[in-house]
Amino acid sequence: MAPKIFIDGEHGTTGLQIVSRLQGRDDIELMSMPAEQRRDQEVRKSFLRDADIAILCLPDDAAREAVTLAADAGTRFIDASTAHRTHPDWAFGFAELSSEQGARIASAQFVSNPGCYSTGAIALLAPLVNAGLLPTDYPVTINAVSGYTGGGKQLIAQIEDGSRDDAISATYFSYALTLAHKHVPEIVTRAGLSRLPIFTPAVGRFAQGMLVNVPLHLDLLGKDASIATLHAVLADHYSGGSVVEVVSLAATSALARLDPEEMKGTDQMKLYVCGNEEAGQVNLVASLDNLGKGASGAAVQNLGLMIGG
Ligand SMILES: NC(=O)C1=CN([C@@H]2O[C@H](COP(=O)(O)OP(=O)(O)OC[C@H]3O[C@@H](n4cnc5c(N)ncnc54)[C@H](OP(=O)(O)O)[C@@H]3O)[C@@H](O)[C@H]2O)C=CC1
Ligand SMILES: CC(=O)N[C@@H](CCC(=O)OP(=O)(O)O)C(=O)O
């Protein structure tokens, strides 16, 4: 029998994207709840308990509540929120993290999707920490720009509807000015850092896509660190997979700029190693769609692993 899949929050930004990816598949039974009942706890509880796998596309508190409503019924969860990303009982839903992570996700009852920025940052940092090239206490900085759909319905309305009292007219803005963004804990935990990175995110007036930049000083890295060795470690780590591509140094050196919308509409991620060897400086860059590999695409990838598809 095809596994029953319920998307709690199916009418939100991430939920709608997952529905569009799953509609028409005959290897699953997609359950659906009328939009007007989306906040009715009893109806949600019944769907959550009846599902084989529930994909939570909800704010953190509602995601935690959904788990309490149905975990004892054996329902398996993929949580797109921040609620469980550093929880030791939850498998971290970044299948490319290590050679074992896909199997961990496949057998888990509880899978937590990474955040969109975290996906890029962890993808760049974790292999370098594991290879001993990036000291765990390196003073990492992460500078990123996201499409505005990353902020869900609320930010989308503020950007797109100029008549609102809280409309945002800026074409680009920095935020998380107190440096306490919700993705920092999962980046620390999952990349294996021992020192808090400084994370400065920004939003641009485009719907989907993001660039996550991690600039590094080569002389503060392991003794073999060079643009070529950093690239080789990343290329080796992601070789054989079809989701994360490490762009060749030759192709990267021919580029004049990187476009945050490059990966819009895809569920893949590209990693670039840019820099200036003479100056001893390198910039690692991840390019992804915040709603693709950064959210819904990753949820569908994890679902595939969990149902053995
Ligand atoms: N957008 C993105 O790029 C990413 C989002 N995420 C995460 O995914 C989750 C969903 O985000 P997103 O889709 O952007 O958010 P949206 O605001 O677009 O959608 C959230 C949905 O959840 C519903 N909802 C809110 N509170 C409750 C509740 N208490 N009970 C039941 N339903 C509720 C909302 O209904 P209503 O319309 O009534 O408010 C809405 O349909 C969040 O945790 C977010 O941080 C993760 C990665 C990237
Ligand atoms: C542009 C924007 O506002 N982005 C969101 C993060 C989007 C996301 O990844 O949400 P999760 O943490 O639930 O995964 C933010 O910075 O809060």
TrEMBL record:
It is an enzyme of class 1 (oxidoreductase). Transmembrane segments: none annotated. Catalyzes the NADPH-dependent reduction of N-acetyl-5-glutamyl phosphate to yield N-acetyl-L-glutamate 5-semialdehyde. This is N-acetyl-gamma-glutamyl-phosphate reductase. The active site is at C116. PANTHER family: N-ACETYL-GAMMA-GLUTAMYL-PHOSPHATE REDUCTASE, CHLOROPLASTIC-RELATED, N-ACETYL-GAMMA-GLUTAMYL-PHOSPHATE REDUCTASE, CHLOROPLASTIC-RELATED-RELATED. Its EC number is 1.2.1.38. The keyword Cytoplasm applies. CDD domains: AGPR_2_C, AGPR_2_N. The keyword Glycoprotein does not apply. One of its GO terms (molecular function) is N-acetyl-gamma-glutamyl-phosphate reductase activity. InterPro entries: AGPR, AGPR_AS, AGPR_dimerisation_dom, AGPR_type-2, NAD(P)-bd_dom_sf, Semialdehyde_DH_NAD-bd. The lineage of its organism: Bacteria, Pseudomonadati, Pseudomonadota, Alphaproteobacteria, Hyphomicrobiales. Residues 4-105 form the Semialdehyde dehydrogenase NAD-binding domain. It comes from Hoeflea algicola. Pfam families: Semialdhyde_dh, Semialdhyde_dhC_1. Keywords: Amino-acid biosynthesis, Arginine biosynthesis, Cytoplasm, NADP, Oxidoreductase.
